[in-house]
Specification:
By secondary structure, the protein is an alpha/beta fold. Helix content is about 30%, strand content about 15%. Strand 3 (about 20), helix 1 (about 35-45) and strand 4 form a beta-alpha-beta unit.
């Protein structure tokens, strides 16, 4: 069965072999993908992988983690991504872009900045993140982050890729809101399960990328 095609909604993959998300420092220092990124992804397509899931591509222009990973936080990143994706698709290989925002688990930055510490709630963390404490996001900052995801989803569609995946795990910003340990808010974005899910629910990615 592994070599048989299968369909997810309206996307048909030629077999059941997918390459999961793999990170790599394959972008310039502004987040634009390089030819190294395109050639790395193309190597999998050339060897009959049916689909590729990208590294987590950041939706926030300030929180960029790690450095030299791709960005999709501005329209200028669409064209270089599109060119690489088209090179992959020539081998009948589907390309799925994974988007995310590291929040306070941002691991590196050119300079330490307050944006690297933003999270659902304030607190100390000596194991993860560029800083050793997190700063609670304001409602306005939450709304801006939701907008960032929506705009990134639109750009994903404009690259011509075959699917979109959202990072809501591994301690990134969405996970920070879902997890009651890191989300101790008492407003509409914290407390009950329903309120902790509100941040993710309000993104309305399908509508934004339509």
């Amino acid at each position: 069965m592994i070599f048989e095609p299968f369909t997810i909604k309206n996307v048909t993959l030629k077999n059941r072999i997918l390459r999961s998300s793999i990170g790599g420092r394959t972008s310039y220092y502004d987040g634009t993908v390089t030819s190294a990124w395109k050639n790395f992804e193309k190597r999998f397509a050339e060897n009959d992988v049916a689909g590729i899931i990208s590294a987590t591509i950041t939706v926030d222009d300030r929180r960029w983690s790690p450095l030299e990973y791709p960005k999709i936080s501005n329209d200028k990143f669409i064209k270089p991504l599109r060119e690489g994706i088209q090179a992959v698709q020539k081998f009948d290989c589907k390309y799925i872009i994974q988007i995310g925002d590291a929040g306070y688990q941002t691991q590196t930055s050119l300079f330490s900045q307050e944006a690297d510490a933003k999270s659902a709630s304030s607190g100390f963390d000596l194991l993860f993140g560029y800083r050793n404490h997190s700063i609670e996001m304001s409602v306005e900052e939450i709304e801006q982050t939701i907008h960032n995801f929506a705009e990134a989803a639109r750009r994903v569609r404009e690259t011509g890729c075959d699917g979109l995946e959202i990072t809501a795990s591994k301690g990134y910003i969405i996970h920070q809101f879902l997890n009651p340990v890191s989300n101790r808010r008492t407003d509409e974005y914290g407390g009950s399960v329903e309120k902790r899910f509100r941040f993710l629910q309000e993104m309305r990615i399908r509508e934004a990328s339509a």
